[in-house]
Amino acid sequence: GAGVSQSPSNKVTEKGKDVELRCDPISGHTALYWYRQSLGQGLEFLIYFQGNSAPDKSGLPSDRFSAERTGGSVSTLTIQRTQQEDSAVYLCASSPRGGAGNTIYFGEGSWLTVV
Amino acid sequence: AQSVTQLGSHVSVSEGALVLLRCNYSSSVPPYLFWYVQYPNQGLQLLLKYTSAATLVKGINGFEAEFKKSETSFHLTKPSAHMSDAAEYFCAVGGGRSSASKIIFGSGTRLSIRP
Predict the structure, then answer these.
(1) Which of B44, B46, B52, B74 to mutate to test the interface with A (most CBs of A within 10 A)?
(2) Which residue in A110, A113, A111 sits closest to A93, CA to CA?
(3) Tens digit of pLDDT at every position of chain B (115 positions)
(4) What is the pLDDT of residue A1?
(5) pLDDT for the residue B6
(6) What is the DSSP string of B44-97?
(7) Bridge-partner residues for B94, per DSSP?
(8) Contacts of A72 in chain B (CB under 8 A)
(9) How far is the C-alpha of B91 from the C-alpha of B36, rounded, in Å?
(10) Which residues, including other chains, have CB under 8 Å from residue B57's CB and lie 6 or more apart?
(11) Inter-chain CB proximity B99 and A45 less than 8 Å
């Protein structure tokens, strides 16, 4: 597709369950980001993938959160044993190249509600 | 490490008035700076970016921002607000020229326009 695609767009899950959120970046983009958008918290950086380099996981809030990127393209963000405070919009973004000077393009987000 | 602070979570101006959204950054290296906008029920899109060329950067929809190193600021302005400018605005900073450098966002400022 033309843009960053995320699925599901909405997910309601019970506390304690695991969830997987998927991101398809723009074709050919080597850099991929995950951010979390909570009410009043802005955009919280979670993880950054660039090419074949080890990902920057410095923003993951706990060891319940993990992400992988297969074949340098699709990425999956996994949240284990979900808690109510995990409720947020999870945004994926991609960029043609790594590095902080490049424009990043956002998906529409996955809205996660933990009940 | 880098960070960004947006002063004012909510700004309200009258239609036709000056828009000023404040952003201060911290970076140990020369920064890249961005403003992104999120219109209601839409994804984030780039408004403008500073990449060490001209200090006054012009973006879409009549917005501009000025990089002031001495003040570590990158405030966003528009001379005359329009109703369609109502949105959430995010300032972001990226530091370093390495492909490992990532982009960090502020907490956002919601702009409301009064008729």
Answers:
(1) B44
(2) A110
(3) 788 999 999 999 999 999 999 999 998 888 899 999 999 888 899 999 998 778 999 999 999 999 999 999 999 999 999 999 999 999 999 876 676 778 899 999 999 999 9
(4) 53
(5) 95
(6) EEEEEEE-SS-SEEE-GGG-EEEEETTTTEEEEEESS--GGG-EEEEEEEEE-S
(7) B32, B103
(8) none
(9) 6
(10) B48, B49, B50, B64, B65, B66, B67
(11) no
One-letter amino acid at A66 equals: S
Q: And the tokens for A96?
A: 């043609």
Contact B108 A50 (CB under 8 A): no
Q: Which residues of chain A have pLDDT under 50?
A: none
**CB atoms B103 and A33 under 8 Å:** yes
List residues of B whose CB lies inside 8 A of any A CB. Answer: 6, 9, 31-32, 34, 36, 43-46, 49, 51, 90, 92-108
